[in-house]
Amino acid sequence: MFAIRKLTAAAVALALAATAAQAQVSDGVVKIGVLNDMSSLYADIGGPGSVIAARMAVEDFGAAKKGMKVEIVSADHQNKPDVGSQIARQWIDVDKVDVIIDVPNSGVALAVSQVVRDKGKAFLNTGAASSDLTGKACSPNTIHWLYDTWMLAHGTGSAVVKTGGKSWFFITADYAFGHALERDTAEVVTHSGGKVLGAVRAPLNTQDFSSFLLQAQSSKAQVIGLANAGGDTINSIKQAAEFGIVKGGQSLAGLLVFLSDVHGLGLDKAQGLVFTETWYWDMNDASRAWAKRYAAANGGKYPTMDHAGVYSAVLHYLKAVEAAKTDDGTKVIAKMKEMPTDDPLFGKGRVRQDGRKIHPAYLFEVKKPSESKYPYDYYKLRATIPADQAFRPEKDGGCSLVK
Amino acid sequence: MTEIFGIPVQAFMGQLLIGLINGSFYALLSLGLAVIFGLLNIINFTHGAQYMMGAFCAYLLLNKTGIGYWPALLIAPVIVGATGVLVERTMLKRLYNLDHLYGLLLTFGLALIIQGLFRNEYGTSGQPYAMPQALSGGHNLGFMFLPNYRAWVIAASLVVCLATWFIIERTKLGSYLRAATENPALVQAFGINVPRMITLTYGFGVALAALAGVMAGPIYQVSPQMGADLIIVVFAVVVIGGMGSIMGSIVTGFGLGIVEGLTKVFYPEASNTVIFVIMAVVLLFKPAGLFGKER
Prior knowledge:
CATH architecture of chain B: Orthogonal Bundle
Number of helices of chain A: 15
CATH class of chain B: Mainly Alpha
Strand content of chain A: 15-25%
Order of helices and strands of chain A: HEHHEHEHEEHEHEHEHEHHEHHHEEEEEH
Largest sheet of chain B: 2 strands, antiparallel
CATH class of the largest domain in chain A: Alpha Beta
Structural class of chain A: alpha/beta
Shape of chain A: globular
CATH superfamily of the largest domain in chain A: Response regulator
Largest sheet of chain A: 5 strands, parallel
Strand content of chain B: under 5%
Strand order of the largest sheet of chain A: 2-1-3-4-5
Shape of chain B: globular
CATH topology of the largest domain in chain A: Rossmann fold
Oligomer: heterodimer
Number of helices of chain B: 11
Number of domains of chain A: 2
Number of domains of chain B: 1
Largest interface: A-B, 41 and 39 residues
Number of strands of chain A: 15
């Protein structure tokens, strides 16, 4: 049974050998696996939209014209590290997947990074946040593409402290991501002369934040830092409005906010929120054009920065496979670090030795309802953080790959 | 300032009040479940999805027809209750003579289908649903700021729960229903239309879920996931209270809301699991539940 498969694969490979470049691609197919939360609180950030973004990248790369066979598969990790690692294992061992992409939820990302490392494949993480992925858990098979908790902490955290938010109280999602974000932001706050008055850990996917918001309110902190994401952030902000938190003089700092969250909240609840992202659809003509193409394929929903990240990462990956003439994970990742990146959405950038991709970060503020002129016109740009300052210096991460 | 168990009295009272608010949602939902199980012997896993449909019904009524919150409180339960009646007539009716498990599987499957359909259409970030003007804002009680809307939730669910209990336990209609559950053939022999009563009862239980959904709309996001996350906890509440007992589920709903609220103060990481720990303990010592009767 497997012999026949190998024979077919060999025949296909031989047939494609005419273009020479494919002779060393395993089974003749570059298989991309999009793994993320398809059904729960992070599904609008990545979800099925990431598959659309990946497909657009494969089309724009011109895989068909170059004779490269590229397949895309997808799965739901349900925010469970054991489910995520099991899917990754099965994909690599049985389904011959060469690269896994997206994986929001830092707990799952750390688990999958380990699996991919053990098997020598490639892992392009766009969705997760934990800065440990390029720090103490860095790997020669993983590239952290889009953003991380260090960038968020320094981008949003320093901006909020500068405008007078000196005392903080955290509401933290109780797993790897929340802890990392709280830790990195607390560091920024204390470094800038502020104080952390306390923190409360809420289970992931909490529906009702009233109890935690009450504790934040009674701490009398100037800033309530929301170290959570997706549905959790939406619920926190919505319920904070109910309890008169902002009216009572405290401010909310959304430490990780996506376009889909603002859309879910509505501008009257989200207005004034300040946060850091690395891409927004309305920033330049190329992004706008891409976003409209994406929206047409996605029922009118506009892309989040995660979708843009998937597109950018797949594009660079395919270029690296073409240049390296192989889809062996470790070799392609090395090639991706060697080649500078360039795509219509993020412009020029590069991938560091520790696996961190570098690009500028942007401080956005959510517009007031009266300022929004067309659908998804939600952000105004407050500041740009240049690429070399946006991310943690390579030597500070504790990554063993950095000499 | 005085402290109870290490936290200030004000914070403590505030958390108790919040626990009561959550408890009212648990009570309302577990009431519907208890009615359906106690009287019809069906484990209605679709309850969470029907709660979600109530919230979406209110959202669609507002956004497509301009009908606001107050009319939606009546209209949405009627619409969702009607779908419940449809389900009962076409599917559940065939399962009454079979093992409980078939009803569970059917309603579980229905829940997954309904949730999947809504998720396909709306995504999971949820839709905003505005709070009714009359109930926005709140009062500063001194130890906490109580939003008016949350106070309304406690009051409304208490009224609905007690009214339901009264109808089932103290009126003639309720006694017919209870008799029909124990011995349908005999009751039917007396000329009472038992199948129709059963259908309407299921519809009523579903309508209760939808009512809870409409009330949840302004404070939680109207999202396809909202029922799935709540239903497991509600089942635990019903099991602890006793599967057939109406008063049991009301009391337990409020009580467990308070317990969960207190856990969030002292050890928030466990707030998701404390109800299940209690369920395990109760089942060990009193398998029929705190207020239940052995069947």
